[in-house]
Amino acid sequence: MGNHKKILLANVHHKDQHTIAGYESRGGYKTIKKVLGMDPLKVIDEVKTSGLRGRGGAGFPTGTKWGFVPRNSGKPVYLLQNADESEPGTFKDRVLLERDPHLCIEGMLISAWALQSNWSCVYIRGEYSYPYVRLNEAIKEAYAKGYLGDNIFGTGFSHHMVIHRGAGAYICGEETGLIESLEGKKGQPRLKPPFPAVVGVYGCPTVVNNTETLAALPWIMENGGAAYKAIGTEKSTGTKLISASGNINKPGVYEIDLGYPLLKFIEEECGGIAGGRKLKAVIPGGSSVPVLRADELEGVTLDYESLQKAGSLLGSGGFMVLDDTVDMVEVAVNLAHFYSHESCGQCTPCREGGHWIEKILNRIKDGYGREQDLKLIESICKQIGGHTICTFGEALITPALSCIKKFPQEFTDKIKEAILSGRKPEEYRHQAGH
Amino acid sequence: MKLSEKAEKRIAEILPKYPDKKSAVMPALYIAQEEMGYVTSESVNWVAEKVGLSPVHVMEVATFYTMFYKKPVGKYHFQVCRTLSCALRGAKKITDHIADRLGTETNEVTADGMWSYEEVECLGSCGTAPMCQLNDVYFENLTIEKIDELMKKVAADKPDLRFSTVKDSLGEGLPKEPRSQVI
Prior knowledge:
The complex is a heterodimer.
Chain A: H1 20-25, H2 30-35, H3 40-50, H4 62-67, E1 78-83, H5 92-99, H6 101-115, E2 119-124, H7 129-144, E3 160-165, H8 175-182, E4 206-210, H9 211-215, H10 217-223, H11 225-229, E5 239-246, E6 252-257, E7 260-261, H12 262-269, E8 279-283, E9 292-293, E10 301-302, H13 304-309, E11 318-323, H14 328-342, H15 348-365, H16 373-384, H17 392-406, H18 408-421
Parallel strand pairs in A: 1-2, 1-4, 2-3, 5-11
Antiparallel strand pairs in A: 5-6, 7-10, 8-9, 8-11
Chain B: H1 5-14, H2 25-36, H3 41-51, H4 55-64, E1 76-81, H5 84-88, H6 91-102, E2 115-120, E3 132-134, E4 137-139, H7 144-157
Parallel strand pairs in B: 1-2
Antiparallel strand pairs in B: 1-3, 3-4
Helix pairs in contact in B: 1-2, 2-3, 3-4
């Protein structure tokens, strides 16, 4: 097992960590007291020094994102915590919200001070009732102690925080979709620019940060940006939560130093492949990143650069492991269904194309494939990618394209079998529920 | 129309928390839904009035989000995750078993009004797959036996598993579900 630094999960094992007493007994809210006496621009500099990057999936440098917020625009600055956690394979923020909610609040306060924001909102996915309860209690406790509200610690700084429940739409994890949803509308993403840092929620400058990103801030401000930068690799600094799931012996949420070898992670942390079977493929960063075959993993490390070089992405760290019994056509169908279901319906290529891809893949899976089907899927994908308002279009085509590209034979075998069988594709009727 | 005093109280507490009360459309829909079991046309009007939007706007929101039900569901509504991580660990067997036990189609309510089920997309509990949600409570690392035990217990005790009643002592008296492993 790697000797990883514990920054985010340092205290989650303590039974009372979710209470303010438990959190404070382990040094909680100590850092914010210090930070509130600092020049806010210095806080931003410290975060820039740390090299911290957005942990929701995009990996954009957090300090830089904050730097885009105009100062003295005359409008209030709003801060939103993205706890929508809807990327399939990702369940890390839930652990933080359930077990260390005050860490998320303290992180929010640090960010709020840096941005001089007096109002923030945690946008939490609707299904997360238990994390909601924990976070809601924590916010109440923080208000009762005067850590939230008006004149925090007598500094004259005020900050109010609300939790907003989503209602089952994946797209609300996209920051402008989230903003639209919070404004009381359908969560359909906005065209950028303008970026939320300039025109966000209620037309005001807005920063949207992932829960895990915010949770790293107390440690960074306590120990310094340079100390954080010393962990991980040069460009992928610090630690990252990896949500490990699929055909492994020990699924769960792991905090690793970025740059940790991927195969070692599967073998040691995840306890290897379940049932003594063999590794077939990994989807390392949530369902919208390209799949990697087992033979492509040698020397790959878990960080932004290495995974990109290998042809995939670190994304949200939703690490899904597939063993050698898994049928890649089924995987492609499963994810195509997800994306066609979750399209917000705003852009035609995504709304229509997603369903076409799913239908064709289903037909292949059910033994009615046609020779031209894979070319057709490729052509539909080409018309979706880059032709939509948000990146959902790319997310939608990636699983289909990468499954076909990496495991072409599984698709062509099914199609060949269908052609030889003499089954007529035009007679195929997709059965609901598959 | 009027909802219960409790609902009126809940919405009155929520409205001032937002810089713009239109933001409260989703919380208001949740409150109405808990009261009525699903989003009725009357409750759409109630929400519209509370948050200052037109009923058609509220309806648009209600139909966009899957967690607002447009027709009644069972008193106990299973939502079984079907996305990849759960599928890899046997989610289909769990759904099939529930369907067999209930003898109903997806989203069809049993004659006694007690049960319904549907397959849903990733619920963010992939480390404890397969899993489902029964009303607003998660049940994880599911087996067919666990589903049977859960249904038996729920039928006998009729616990309140709605969101607003979810407490820190979550799932008390129900088959214990281990939380995600954290290392």
